[in-house]
Amino acid sequence: MPENAQLSDLNDRSREVFRRVVEAYLTTGEPVGSRTLTRDMSEKVSAATIRNVMQDLEYLGLLDHPHVSAGRMPTQLGLRLFVDGLMEAGPVSASDREMIEETLSDDSGDTGAMLDRVSTALSALTHGASLVLMPKQEAPVRHIEFVGLAPDRALVVLVFADGRVENRVFTPPPGHTASSMREAANFLNALAEGRTLADLRARIAGEISASRQKLNSMAAALVSSGLAMWEDGSSDPRLIVRGRANLLADELADLDLVRSLFDDLERKRDIAEFLELAEQGEGVRIFIGSENKLFSLSGSSLVVSPYMNADRKIVGAVGVIGPTRLNYGRIVPIVDYTAQLVGRMISGRKG
């Protein structure tokens, strides 16, 4: 089957048949027959004519049928073509908007609790599983200290400007001394003021090389060892998942596939990739079926949108996952609107 079918390949009748098949399938989850379409077409055509059009669409790889006597349903390629070229995404309804805004109205300052409520609301609104990637902790570092615990163990104490303190154990270089630890801490604290960990990591990479002659080799090794530990610290983003039971509500659900999806969600693997998917394009992105590399399950779709902080930097993402027959026209604006509101809350902007 051709995989480069375009809307320009379709005449008006073929385009209407294709659109009506997809819309009916997204509503019912069932294959659509030619007789059903004869009642809805804008022009009077016979069921035989519609069947011929469906055969042409099947040849283009846009439609398929589960068995000989069944109607047609869109393929993954067909869904992609529909979403990109024919889908009409309406505005967020007043009731949906009210529910989202009410979820964000509690300005307690607890970002984690707020995003947890957002995830629950998204799941309830879309009847799918919601995913919210919390932002990394971005508070500047106020002070860094190294503490020796044993010949083969040391502690990095990180004090942040927001008052948070993190302790991370790591393996220091052999032969480290109290003097080299002080030198390493002094080196880092001279650079740390006003910088987040991400900023500090970027700066240190060049500074160690430039200052190696001034910095004791043992202290430089301590900095490098401690730096490696920061990459896996507790400031990493956290993925919130809500509404997994919604994926079982569909009577047509393949339990083995859903179970596979649950396994992936429970492991919360490739969280960084989830954010990377959102960062690759502005606004809402839609991944249909096997386009979604985040999960091993191929029979699902992911609708995801990033949100930004006050510096217009992407710090997290919100999304909905469900069967490929998601109501994209409704869910896309909900995800987009939610991401915008979360961004405003995170950055402290009003409006």
TrEMBL record:
The gene is hrcA. The keyword Transcription applies. It comes from Paracoccus halophilus. InterPro entries: GAF-like_dom_sf, HrcA, HrcA_C, WH-like_DNA-bd_sf, WH_DNA-bd_sf, WHTH_transcript_rep_HrcA_IDD. The keyword Transcription regulation applies. Belongs to the HrcA family. GO terms for molecular function: DNA binding. One of its GO terms (biological process) is negative regulation of DNA-templated transcription. Residues 114-332 form the Heat-inducible transcription repressor HrcA C-terminal domain. Signal peptide: none annotated. Negative regulator of class I heat shock genes (grpE-dnaK-dnaJ and groELS operons). Prevents heat-shock induction of these operons. This is Heat-inducible transcription repressor HrcA. Keywords: Repressor, Stress response, Transcription, Transcription regulation.
